[in-house]
Amino acid sequence: MKVENIINNNGNRAANQFVISNGNKVYFQSYATMIALWDYTERKLYVTPSWDCSVTTRKHFYIFLNEYTSIDGNRESVLNGIREGRIEVVQEKMLSL
Predict the structure, then answer these.
(1) Which helix (H) or strand (E) holds 39?
(2) How many alpha carbons fall within 13 Å on the CB side of residue 37?
(3) How many domains would you assign to the chain?
(4) Structural domain of residue 61, as residue ranges?
């Protein structure tokens, strides 16, 4: 397992914004809250309702999407993915490491 700060748009490590790599899965955590899981094998994104909780979380979540997934990092793409079933909304406890 590897934990790194996400790199922001200015090329700096973002405080309290983490990417956790674990085998074929990569997670995004904002502060102490797990936000998303991208499963490379399934090519599927799982998100918690917290993905949309603040401007800061959304900003770093979109960076995560652009860097680690095949989903465009913007609100419209996420909402469309949820409606179309390509993105599954789950409770945070479902995103266990």
Answers:
(1) strand 33-39
(2) 20
(3) 1
(4) 2-94
